[in-house]
Amino acid sequence: MALLLMFVTLLHLITLAMLFIATMEKTWWVWDDMKISDLWYNCRLDNSTESWLCSSTDETQWLQAVQVLMVLSVVFSSVSFLVFLGQLFTMSKGGLFYFTGLCQVFAGLTDASAALIYTLHNEEILQGSHDLRTGHFGYCFILAWVCVPLLLCSGIVYIHLRKKE
């Protein structure tokens, strides 16, 4: 039981870190090593100073939806972890972690929705930027998709996990 508890806790912390990185980092779309875009900024590398020059992205409704859903996913996963820690010490023996599991499942669903919207509407989100045929999805976008099954699996494990002494 202790091994399962450590595994679930570690999985939760890993997915939370991955979600945070996917939400805050700068590589949802990459044109080359010189120009990238994320949920918040469009950046280009200045060769003379070797630093990134960033400007705010054009706020489209699709981009705002992705931003909100990714932030909600981080919030749901964070709340889930805090509730799990609280339940771990206060729940009676034999109790189930329903609320923790549901928060994790909601985090997975909001993450999936955000990644799906970005997948289907990246042309509208990145309008006015460079030609999309010369670019590709970045690692933060892939990280967001990798989080989806991990969040859903950990949510299901939490729902079936029973506190034992």
TrEMBL record:
<feature type="transmembrane region" description="Helical">
    <location>
        <begin position="96"/>
        <end position="116"/>
    </location>
</feature>
<comment type="similarity">
    <text>Belongs to the PMP-22/EMP/MP20 family.</text>
</comment>
<protein>
    <submittedName>
        <fullName>Epithelial membrane protein 3</fullName>
    </submittedName>
</protein>
<dbReference type="InterPro" id="IPR004032">
    <property type="entry name" value="PMP22_EMP_MP20"/>
</dbReference>
<keyword id="KW-0812">Transmembrane</keyword>
<dbReference type="InterPro" id="IPR050579">
    <property type="entry name" value="PMP-22/EMP/MP20-like"/>
</dbReference>
<dbReference type="InterPro" id="IPR004031">
    <property type="entry name" value="PMP22/EMP/MP20/Claudin"/>
</dbReference>
<feature type="signal peptide">
    <location>
        <begin position="1"/>
        <end position="17"/>
    </location>
</feature>
<dbReference type="GO" id="GO:0005886">
    <property type="term" value="C:plasma membrane"/>
</dbReference>
<keyword id="KW-1133">Transmembrane helix</keyword>
<feature type="transmembrane region" description="Helical">
    <location>
        <begin position="136"/>
        <end position="161"/>
    </location>
</feature>
<dbReference type="Pfam" id="PF00822">
    <property type="entry name" value="PMP22_Claudin"/>
</dbReference>
<keyword id="KW-0472">Membrane</keyword>
<feature type="transmembrane region" description="Helical">
    <location>
        <begin position="62"/>
        <end position="84"/>
    </location>
</feature>
<keyword id="KW-0732">Signal</keyword>
